[in-house]
Amino acid sequence: MNEKAFWVALSSVSGIGPARLTALLDRFGSAEAVWTAPREELAAAGLDRRSLTNLVQARRTSDPAKLWRNVERRGLDCVTWDDEAYPQNLRNVSGAPPVLYVDGTLVARDQWAVAIVGTRRASVYGREVAHRLATELARNEVTVVSGLALGIDTTAHQAAIDAGGRTIAVLGCGLDQVYPAQNRNLAAAIRQQGALVSDYPLGTRPEPRNFPPRNRIISGLSTCVVIVEAGTRSGALITAEFAADQGREVFAVPGSILHPGSVGCNRLIQDGATPLLSIDDLLAQLDLDRKRELAEVRRTMPSDPLEARVLERLNMIPQHVDDLARDLALNPGVLTGVLTTLELKGLVRQVSPMSYVQA
């Protein structure tokens, strides 16, 4: 049976989130092994009583093969932590969902992405700003990420599509429950020029409690986040909080102090968000010229088994060249040359003299 079937089955079990699944995978080695493990071994692995009960019950009532056939029958895919196709931006944040359901395509260039979010009750000013930002980003081959909600989200998605760019919509429900219904045609267009994604299993209804957590995916997929217009209780402010926690730059579009839809943005600026005064502010943050240079280097330089070996040994903890050379049994001069090549490709980064991490 497809291993992804067990990832899908586990993702539907209440109480088994990223942290618990990581511990279980470390203990048992695969999603299938977790799914089939004896109850006493699951308990010994540290699974709490409630989550253990939920998992045992799910194994009685759910068939992983049937769940996976349902995904395939709808023409969907799912990417897991184990897949190279899992979005790199999202992979690097704490609490990244183990499974993402995908309707459409995710591509490597989506790592250059900006989230544009805001109120559902957008003003003419807010819509115009969102339209101009998304249009210019699309023309610069930057993917626009948003939440398919009415208002600012809808404007951003549509502008990116009209400009011939890519856009990703993150849903707060299963991908078979497109919400809001008014945006079904827009969702169909997004499938052709990007993707609809969700970490909620098929059949999950668009309940209000689902939307705040999905905002962590909107910010996680993006290199920076723009709040165009937001009232004091706008969900866009939750996205800004997630973005700050994830180390993303947060831009806020300033607005009239007399307009209730600008209160949230103005307060974000007061609290330290970067005021977005022109599209140039955003393009400068993205450093597109540098990213294009790195992409060209990746395309022109062939992959090499030794490079792969060195890259596999690195992680987010800085490692000194001498330690790497000893662990890999490599001449330090040869290793330095490989690291230089990987740095040119944007795959590693020197964080202090002679110490490197994965980029």
Mean pLDDT across the residues is 90
Order of neighbouring strands in the sheet with most strands: 1-2-6-5-4-3-7-8-9
Series of H and E elements: HHHHHHEHEEHEHEHEHEHEHEHHHEHHEE
Helix count equals 18
Task: Give me the secondary-structure category.
Answer: alpha/beta
| Shape assignment | globular
Point out poorly predicted stretches. none
Measured by DSSP, the beta-strand proportion falls in 5-15%
Major sheet size, sense and barrel closure: 9 strands, mixed
Helical content band: 40-55%
Span between termini: 34 Å
The total beta strand count reads: 12
Radius of gyration, taken over Cα atoms and rounded to an integer in Å: 22 Å
Sum up the structure in keywords.
alpha/beta, nine-stranded mixed β-sheet, three-stranded antiparallel β-sheet, globular
Folded structure, characterized:
The chain has 359 residues and is an alpha/beta fold. Helix content is 49%, strand content 14%. It is globular, with a radius of gyration of 22 Å.
Describe the structure in brief.
With 359 residues, the chain is an alpha/beta fold. It is built from 18 helices and twelve strands.
Question: Which helices and strands, and how do they pair?
Answer:
Blueprint: H1 3-11, H2 18-28, H3 31-36, H4 39-44, H5 49-61, H6 64-73, E1 77-80, H7 88-91, E2 99-104, E3 113-117, H8 124-139, E4 143-146, H9 152-162, E5 167-170, H10 184-192, E6 194-198, H11 211-220, E7 224-227, H12 235-245, E8 249-252, H13 263-270, E9 274-275, H14 279-286, H15 288-300, H16 305-313, E10 319-320, H17 321-328, H18 332-344, E11 348-352, E12 355-358
Helix pairs in contact: 1-6, 8-9, 11-12, 16-18
